[in-house]
Amino acid sequence: MAAAAAAAGRARRGAPVYSQKELTSKKRGEFEDILEERRMSSDLRYAMKCYAPVIYKGLSPCKPSAIKSAVLHSEQVQYVIRQLAKETGESSDIIQEAAMEILDEMGHSMQLGAVRFFAFTLSKIFKRLFQRVCVNEEGMQRLQQAIQEHPVVLLPSHRSYVDFLMLSYLLYTYDLALPVIAAGIDFLGMKIVGELLRRAGAFFMRRSFGGNRLYWAVFAEYVKTMLRNGYAPVEFFLEGTRSRTAKTLTPKFGLLSIVMEPFFKREVFDTYLVPISISYERILEESLYAYELLGVPKPKESTSGLLKARRILSDNFGTIHIYVGQPVSLRTLASGRINRCPYNLVPRHLPQKPSEDIQEFVSDVAYKMELLQIENMVLSPWVLAAAVLLQNLPAMDFELLIEKTLWLKGLTQTFGGFIEWPEEVYSCFSFLRDVFSDEFIFFPGISLKDFEEGCFLLTKCDAIQTTQQEIYPTDKGSVVISFLSAMFRPFLEGYQLIFRYLSKEAKAAFTEKQFIPGVRNFVFQLLEKGNTQCYEALSSDIQKNALAALVQLGAVKKKKMTNGFTYSINQEAVNKILDMFVFRNQLPRRNDTYPEEPPPREPPPASAAAAVQPRRLRSGAALCRVCGCLGPRVCGRCRRAAYCGPEHQALDWRRGHRRTCAQPGAADDLEDAVPDHNEFLFPEYEILIEPEEPESPADSSVDPDDEAAIDTSGNSDKQEELRATGSASEALESLDEETLEAMAKHETEDDKIFQKFKERIAAEPEQIIRYCRGGEGPIWVSGENVPEEKDIPNCSCGAKRIFEFQIMPQLLNHMKVDSLGESIDWGTLVVYTCANNCNEGNQYTEEFIWKQDFSAGSM
Amino acid sequence: MIKSTCFHSKLQCHVSQVQGIEPEMHNITRKRNLRQELLKWNGWGYNDSKFIFNKKGQAEFTGRRYRLGGMVLPTFKEWIEKTFGASLEHKSTSRASLNVNDVPPSVVNEEFLRDLIATKISYSQDAEDRVFRGHGHCLHEIFALREGIFRRIPDIVVWPVCHEDVVKIVELACKHSLCIIPFGGGTSVSSALECPEEEKRTIVSLDTSQMNRILWIDEKNLTACVEAGIVGQDLEKQLAESGFCTGHEPDSMEFSSLGGWVATRASGMKKNIYGNIEDLVIHIKMVTPRGIVEKNCQVPRMSTGPDIHHFIMGSEGTLGVVTEVTIKIRPVPEYQKYGSVVFPNFERGVACLREVAKQRCAPASIRLVDNAQFQFGHALKPQVASIFTSFLDGLKKFYITKFKGFDPNVLCVATLLFEGDREKVLQHEKQVYDIATKFGGLAAGEDNGQRGYMLTFVIAYLRDLGLDYYIIGESFETSVPWDRVLDLCRNVKERIARECKEKGVQFAPFSTCRVTQTYDAGACVYFYFAFNYRGISDPIHVYEQIERAAREEILANGGSLSHHHGVGKLRKRWMKESISDVGLGMLRSVKEYVDPNNIFGNKNLL
Fold first, then answer.
1. How confident is the model at residue A32 (pLDDT cuts 50, 70, 90)?
2. Confidence of residue B262 (pLDDT cuts 50, 70, 90)
3. B558 vs A343: CB contact, 8 Å cut-off?
4. Is the peptide bond before A632 cis (omega within 30 degrees of 0)?
5. What's the pLDDT tens digit per position in A224-255?
6. pLDDT at B379 over 90
7. Strands B156-159 and B122-124
8. Burial of B247 (0-12, 13-18, 19+ CB in 10 A)
9. Residues in contact with A761: Cβ distance below 8 Å, sequence separation at least 6, in sequence order
10. Contacts for A94 with CB less than 8 Å, ≥ 6 apart
């Protein structure tokens, strides 16, 4: 009897959520990192991309205001208004107004502009916060399909505020219709952000409105209208609020039953429910939650709170996995469960308490959806490791941690957990093979063969077993494996220590002679404190090999210097060059744009020889007051200020034009209203070109050969030593002699070159450009970072690039970007151009610029 | 063996009797045979009227009975190919004629036969006669005929010519414990005429076709007493001779009978003026195993407890045989005018119909067909004789599709029929067109309207053509409150499409609907649904599953089980859901009292 009842119960509830089979053979799609592309291309372009999402049944999206008015005039809301008017005796107009207010408070006003704003800023923020944001592409495709078929309800798990933004960001990235999101009304407390969220598609619901019938009617109708019209996917959180403990909260049924109603009433054919699992490795609000759970009250959402939250931008929050589940058809869920529709006997616009049948169904669906969310939560190694650590506080052995984590991984898999484990043996192997390329002998370029051979050998001695997909160690093999790994451990740990030294302690540039004692010191300290047992890291053999490997891997840049080599950690040098570009344009005298003859020379303005902001070209074309480009647009009010476009007009308006625009007398002051330079424009000057007087032959050039000559002679120079003591200044007493010596030599070398530099420009101290195409090379400000011939790439036409001119640091003063540390800065900028002068005509051709800084020591 | 020889002798005996001295009976036999000969044995309607593809491969409608008769339909072939993915290469032909050997033998009690002969009521045990009365026009029934599959058919057919004959037959049936299945026009689409397979008693098919006289016409009260077997078109024709009509015009009126209308609660196209059958009927005489049921007077209304007519109407032959009906008549209208309105989309059209119903100014008939049906109607346009007509046609098309910005793939058409005094009709017409204009409607001419109504008669012939090319289809109907009309239409079509996909139907199905009747509180919606079944091993089963799903969808959308087709055996499973347990019990108790031995054992309804 009882068995029969249970069977009947199951039949009524449809298929069980889990079946035995699903546990082990669950197929889940591949993940794709959406930030990867963002790191490679322009966020701005991404934010401004053509966004034309597919929508439900090809409907054209209607304006938020149209939705509001449809809701207000819907039978449902009107009915409640009439009822309330009858009961309270108030006029229905007043109640209608109240309804309108509720709508205004609640309604979203999605605007593409705000969406683009978010797309841009979120790209920036997410890139800083997270290493990867991984999405199952297959799920996105399914979602795209679903959106076109039936109204879609997105049901993400809720762990963080990021959930809100992340899904919209994701849908924008995949060109899908942005969801309208049910958000707590407390968000509205955040001044600007609340409105911004509203424009990005959030609508706001009060936390409790059980008693307020008008509110309930308006809210329910608002949600249903959006769903019925297929205007946008509706998104809300079944859990109602963020789970503070990362455990899924029991579901709330209110919103779910609202979104199901249109189907029950057959106003829509079907509704898709899409469970979405968002798994974090680390949650943004982790410490906040801890405080909250300890009883410190939840801070009210506020904009300043958010700004404070910017602090976290410097932290790393690992990877987010978003798993978009299979859309679940509500119709399929309901089939066989809700037969006779109780909605048939009551007009559909009357508010109706759902029958017990339906309440039970809603609750079942809610639990089912949450289980689906949980099922597809991704467990990363970090999460498992954290779980292990928590049971082994305050500390545990690293080896044990690994062992336990792996054990936990196995357990999780047995339980059907969803694990993303970066465990490709081969990629690890080939990485290590590259790292140890100078340590051991590997025949170049055959890493796969090496790998297979290694596997073969290990299989032969029964250390491992291999199948098509998997390699796993055998019990018997533990002897072999532990022996072999012990053999390699010194190298592995030694390298690790060296890398740690480099990333933490080393300067931006160093010589080998600085490097070796530095590492030795570092390791020695660790050894002394007992933080490592790796005495091998003291060996200069390992140190040198590691450095060589890093050079080969491109992590460290090596440069030939007089006294051996200097090394610099690559990133910086690369970055510094990368943000400067030079373009060449050789406009012939006869061209399409400008007259052949220069405009008549007028007497320079009275104020200064340096030109002030020109308002017009002599030809009469107006120029933008902000950027100086052609300005076809004029201020509609004063008709005098010209702009290149609305952005600069708006900018100038805020910057002060609004004050001067209206004043009739201010016409003459118009030019003065704009400062002679702003963040867009540098002040303008006329460049006078004068030939340089020939100097004494000894100082005539600083070409590489000469430099070398000076270098060789300079080692024993008395003068040097003098200068060395002077400029080494703040006694670096703690350093050992050798380092000190190296540093001293290094700096004096630089100083000597700088000395030359100063002498060279002494004749014309104000000079900003030195021009000598193809002739003698530039004069360097420092001995560091001087390009070799191979560093200067050939022109795209294939010709060599030759030196054309260099820009002197004096220009910085003229351009008023001379505040140290904040402004752009250079020692000298050297421009190399195509020897063949290719591509004459109107277009711009990119050429090569080399930036040399004053060396760190002399600054 | 013995049995069959025995029957043979009886049959001969009967034939000899016919050929013998009874001139009246001979006449009847000839008459009933005439009707049977006129009609198809394995499809809808007249033998001479059907769609064919002529030697040029163009579609053509044969015969002279309909306006479309003898006309070539140049675009129809393309439409069929495009809509169903059908190919004229692949034909599935019906058996040319009935193979008597396939037919189950007639099992008739000899004593009964003797008694029956004594009553001098004409009868037959001929296989063709029995097969003809063993089916309605459900898809599976026609399909079985074409395939030559017969499970259970009547054992004997009797032709009473008057009320008294029926009384005698029912008495005999009670005496010999037989099963009677009344048969009128045979146009049932609810499996109501199907003989229950498990019925062991002799099944007597009681064909009312010979009870077809108008007994009297009362011009003062505008009523006529008519025998129940009269067929719709004959009734109208004969009444017209006296200048009257009933105005009851179901789409099947060429073949369906008055008794059938009563037994199924039929509805006529022009119900807006004349009313449905329940509004038209003044008095019913029905023969039941318990005796005759009738009222004592012929009055417009009486308050004497629940109206016993409502036990009879819709009883679907489970209680007895309706023999005589007194029905309201009206003078033949002075003026008739067709009309049509084009709407930019179905939603606007429905809104307009709703408004018309609200203002209670619906013309005699107003129907709204959806876009698919509009296109279908377009495909049935005959080759036009004069170039001028086609030019006008093009101009109109241009006007509709371009000038008003109507999308030919979205627009829908309402067809109208006005009746009455000329002046009133014109006035009425203006009123309706004014409302239509408010909903973006555009008058599209009389001709389109008339064609629309003509097509409803012809459309029934199409299924037989489809069956020849692996296309099966059927129609079904429902009634639904106004506010759910759109949702229901959309959802049912979507459900059909979804079910077809799931059941492996290769080509998207053709499903279309029209709103055929408007009421104060709702409308009647009529669906056509057909698909190409190539590649499906059991098309009828698949079809039935889909139809069942569609019905489930209708019910879930707040539609009724049936507006006028009835329940029969096809829709019995939903009766409980439709009228509640108690409601069903009420009907059962009536049945138990009236027919305790289940003489009328067609197993319909309950």
1. confident
2. very high
3. yes
4. no
5. 888 887 778 899 999 988 888 888 899 989 88
6. no
7. antiparallel
8. buried
9. A767, A779, A808
10. none
Q: Is A813 helix (H, G, I), strand (E, B) or coil?
A: helix
Q: What is the ipTM of this complex?
A: 0.83
Residues 6+ apart with CB under 8 A from A854: A754, A781, A782, A809, A827
Residues 6+ apart with CB under 8 A from A97: none
Amino acid, res. B334 = E
DSSP B100: G
Angle formed by the axes of helices A381-390 and A398-414, nearest 10°:
110
Compute φ and ψ for A616, nearest 5 degrees.
-140, 155
Please indicate if the annotation marks B316 as binding a ligand: yes
B407 touches chain A (CB under 8 A): no
Per-residue model confidence (pLDDT) at position B397: 62
Pick from A265, A269, A343: which is nearest to B490 by CB? A269
The pair of three-digit structure tokens given for residue B70, joined into one six-digit string: 């003898």
Single-letter amino acid, residue A14: G
Amino acid letter, residue B70? G
Residue A21 in this model has a pLDDT that exceeds 50: no
Token pair belonging to A394: 């305050």
Closest CA to A238 of A257, A261, A222: A257
State how beta strands A31-33 and A132-136 pair.
antiparallel
Provide the phi-psi class of A57: left if phi over 0, else alpha when psi is between -120 and 50, else beta.
left
pLDDT digits 0-9 by tens, A298-326: 566 666 565 555 555 667 788 889 999 99
> Distance from B491 to chain A by nearest Cα, in Å?
5
pLDDT confidence of residue B37: 82
CB contact A31 to B (< 8 Å): no
Active-site residue flag, B526: yes
- For B198-214, letters b (16+ CB in 10 Å) and e give ebebbbbbbbbbbbbbb
Residue A849 CA, distance from chain mean position: 28
Pairing, β A152-156 against β A234-235: parallel
**Biggest CA pair distance of chain B:** 78
- DSSP secondary structure of B445-464: -HHHHHHHHHHHHHHHHHHH
| Residues A268, A227 contacting (CB under 8 angstroms) | yes
Q: Tell me the shortest Cα–Cα distance from B552 to chain A, in angstroms.
A: 9
Rounded to 10 deg, the angle between the B346-358 and B485-502 helix axes is 140
Question: Which residues have CB under 8 Å from A692's CB, separation 6+?
Answer: A763, A764, A770
Give me the numbers of helices (H) and strands (E) for chain A, helices first please. 32, 23
- Scanning the structure block, which residue is given the tokens 């009842």? A5
Which one has a higher pLDDT value, B307 or A30? B307
Phi first, then psi: give them for residue B316, nearest 5 degrees: 55, 40
Taking the C-alpha atoms of B153, B157, B160 and B161 in order, what is their torsion angle to the nearest 10 degrees?
110
Q: Which 8-state DSSP code applies to residue A48?
A: T
**By the 8 A CB rule, do A249 and A259 touch?**
no
Contact between B320 and B595 under an 8 Å Cβ cutoff? The reply is yes
Question: Cα torsion at B555, B559, B565, B566 (round to 10°)?
Answer: 60
A723 touches chain B (CB under 8 A): no
Q: H-helix or E-strand containing A519?
A: helix A512-529
Q: Which has the higher per-residue pLDDT, B547 or A295?
A: B547
Q: Which two tokens stand for residue A262?
A: 């249109």
Contact in structure between B229 and B210 (CB atoms under 8 Å): yes
Token pair 């952000």: residue: A193
The pLDDT of residue A59 is 64
CB B477 within 8 A of CB B527: yes
Which is the catalytic residue, given B66, B526, B533, B543?
B526
Average pLDDT over residues A137-166: 87
User: At residue B466, does pLDDT exceed 80?
Assistant: yes
What pTM was estimated for this model as a whole?
A: 0.68
